[in-house]
UniProtKB/TrEMBL annotation:
It catalyses: alpha-D-glucose = beta-D-glucose. GO terms for biological process: galactose catabolic process via UDP-galactose, Leloir pathway; glucose metabolic process. Keywords: Carbohydrate metabolism, Isomerase. Its EC number is 5.1.3.3. Pfam families: Aldose_epim. GO terms for molecular function: aldose 1-epimerase activity; carbohydrate binding. The lineage of its organism: Bacteria, Bacillati, Bacillota, Clostridia, Lachnospirales. The gene is galM. This is Aldose 1-epimerase. InterPro entries: Ald1_epimerase_CS, Aldose_1-epimerase, Aldose_1/G6P_1-epimerase, Gal_mutarotase_sf_dom, Galactose_mutarotase-like, GH-type_carb-bd.
Length: 347
């Protein structure tokens, strides 16, 4: 499987796109810029393939926009409060790129660099990247890998791995935006979602940084323990939703024990497409695309806010600074492992 040119970066570097397929006709396109998922084609109820992730037609459009469509996020996914971390007793100041906080590791995050292809097969590809000491203001030379596999049961598996020569932070995710009616189908609020989480981490006003507390979802709009439309409660008078313009919250997964567990289910009554999310992570971020904004996507499609949702598996936001949260700190001699699977079916 050879790649095809997918434009050039602003710096003049060639970007290459690769196509993964299984025996059922499911197709996933990924590119080496940001190790990014460009498209995910899965069959709907009628057997017609629909591309269920938002994206762009050229690599430069990915550079020009700030939504992180389909990209690998690291070294640290989500937010770090005050853009500061303390590792081995030393404080490191990170880039402040989100209300005085650090979001998705700043301008030199994994989403913005070209990854190397380690190995490729028809249904699998592994990318690697050497993140140099202090490249993102985090210490240590880190070698990171991400492997995408399209399985014959119509799942997209994402496996991450990393080692570092200094104590650092390792908390990777993928920022795919899903619309189970197709990327070009408009608002997704009628699509249904279940999250297997009895608790979530509330955030502070204006910052989206967790307070450090863990609160029950019961009796609040944050309760997705039973399948419901994503838009059912998104506009209700609830402080947490007002703080971030809708859902942009981390959920504490009930069965997180370090093994692969069912974390969430989503489905569209219109297309019949269902997506089950399995992960070995402790948390999952539901982002309802509140700030996508008006823009042009693949094939000239019109995108806007709430046209897709993200289910980002992760350590909790700001976990490196919260002693009550499971730590994303990676020590010398350790290997960071994480896996998430997005499993597609029809109903």
């Amino acid at each position: 499987m050879s790649g095809i040119e997918f434009g050039k970066t602003k710096e003049g570097n060639t970007v290459t796109k690769y196509l993964l397929k299984n025996k059922n006709g499911m197709e996933v396109a990924v590119m080496d810029l940001g190790a990014t998922i460009v498209s995910v084609l899965v069959p709907d109820r009628e057997g017609v393939n629909r591309d269920v992730v938002l994206g762009y037609d050229t690599s430069q459009e990915y550079q020009d926009h700030t939504c992180y469509f389909g990209a690998v996020i690291g070294r640290n996914a989500n937010r770090i409060g005050g853009a500061k971390v303390v590792l081995d007793g030393k404080e490191y100041q990170l880039e402040k790129n989100d209300n005085g906080n650090n979001l998705h590791s700043g301008k030199n995050g994994f989403n913005s660099v070209i990854w190397n292809v380690e190995q490729q097969k028809e249904d699998e590809i592994t990318f690697s990247y050497l993140s140099k000491d202090l490249e993102q203001d985090f210490p240590g030379n880190m070698t990171a890998k991400v492997t995408y596999t399209v399985t014959d049961d119509n799942a997209l598996s994402i496996a991450y791995e990393a080692v570092s020569d200094q104590t650092t932070v390792a908390n990777f995710t993928n920022h795919a935006y899903f619309n189970l009616n197709g990327h070009d189908s408009g608002c997704m609020e009628n699509q249904e979602l279940e999250i297997l989480a009895s608790y979530y981490t509330p955030v502070k006003d204006g910052e989206a940084i967790p307070t450090g507390n863990v609160e029950k979802v019961a009796g609040t709009p944050m309760d997705f323990r039973k399948m419901k439309k994503i838009g059912q409660d998104i506009g209700v008078d609830f402080e947490q939703l007002k703080f971030v313009g809708g859902y942009d919250h981390n959920f504490v997964l009930d069965k997180a024990d370090g093994t692969m567990q069912l974390a969430a289910r989503a489905r569209s009554e219109k297309s019949g497409i269902c997506m089950d999310v399995y992960t070995d992570c402790v948390g999952i971020q539901l982002y309802a695309g509140n700030f996508i904004g008006k823009q042009t996507g693949k094939g000239g499609a019109s995108y806007d806010s709430r046209h897709a949702f993200c289910l980002e598996t992760q350590y909790f936001p700001n976990a490196v600074n919260e002693p009550n949260f499971k730590s994303p700190v990676l020590h010398v001699g350790e290997t960071y492992h994480s896996q998430t699977k997005y499993c597609f079916s029809v109903k």
